[in-house]
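Protein modeling request. Please complete all fields; requests missing the sequence field cannot be processed.
Requester role: graduate student
Desired output: 3D structure, token encoding
Chains: 1
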Amino acid sequence: MKCPSCSADDDKVLESRAVRGGAAIRRRRTCLQCGRRFTTYEEILREGLVVAKRDGRLEEFSRAKLENGVLRSCLKRPVSRQKIDYVVDGIIEALEAKYENEIPAKAIGDAVMEELLKLDEVAYIRYASIYRHFDTVDQFVREVREVRASQGGASEPAEGPAPSAGAAPDAKEGQGPGEPSP
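Delivered output (182 residues):
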């Protein structure tokens, strides 16, 4: 394996582990010439796995393209690279289990949306804005409200507005919710 930094082909494997349900092996390596560490993946390639695009074209499936979309959505978010790899691996496993040779582009987009919603709401909205071709701020607002509603929250942030100075509290001390006031 050539080092991505100095192109030397003398390296040492530091760690190997199975990923993607045993369908691939992840190897951490170090270059013996420059000392740089890098990661490689060894996997079984499925022949002819293609994506059926919306316009009818067929395109070769690309893990890198899928990974790049998830990475860009998670940019500057508190999401580790390990979580992103885990999500991408899970999406690929699910798609390979469901589709034999041809994967509809919509299935990929829907799978990414589902996983990003679990991972990070902001990353989800970022991906949705591209995937669903948002053109107006109203589309963003509508999607945020739908996310809030699906997560069991209100359409407003959890903190909500502060009560005004003259507002009465909902319940008196020692009184349970739903009990009448004395």
